[in-house]
Amino acid sequence: MESGLQKGLVGLGIAIATLVPAALALWLYFLPTWLAGVVRARHGLVIFLVNLLLGWTGLGWLAALWMDWRFKAPPLQAGAVQPVYRRMKW
């Protein structure tokens, strides 16, 4: 007969064995979005939405990864200040 402590430890082991692979799968699913944040892609929101809505197809995931590579922000020049916004020219 198992004690309450043994049952609790078994339950904890099952929870860990379930949550760790689920967290890794979720991270892998959103890898293109994470990379867009790392390289500061210009269209990060679009990449996120493609990844969220179409990533499950596989082709959508590859499209988000491609967009991540394609829309990288240009490198900053030394001493240059990036504008927070740009004025509209009419």
Question: SSE string, helix = H, strand = E?
Answer: HHHH
> What is the helical fraction, as a range of percent?
55-70%
- Counting DSSP E segments of at least 2 residues, the number of strands comes to 0
Name the shape in a single word.
elongated
Cα-atom radius of gyration: 21 Å
Q: Averaged pLDDT, please? A: 80
Major β-sheet profile: none
Question: Total helix count?
Answer: 4
Strand content: under 5%
Give the distance, in angstroms, between the N- and C-terminal Cα atoms.
Answer: 80 Å
The low-pLDDT segments are none
Total count of domains: 1
Structural class computed from helices and strand pairing: mainly alpha
Write the layout of secondary structure elements.
Blueprint: H1 4-29, H2 31-39, H3 44-54, H4 59-70
Helix pairs in contact: 2-3, 2-4, 3-4
Protein name: Superinfection immunity protein
Organism: Formicincola oecophyllae
Keywords: Membrane, Transmembrane, Transmembrane helix
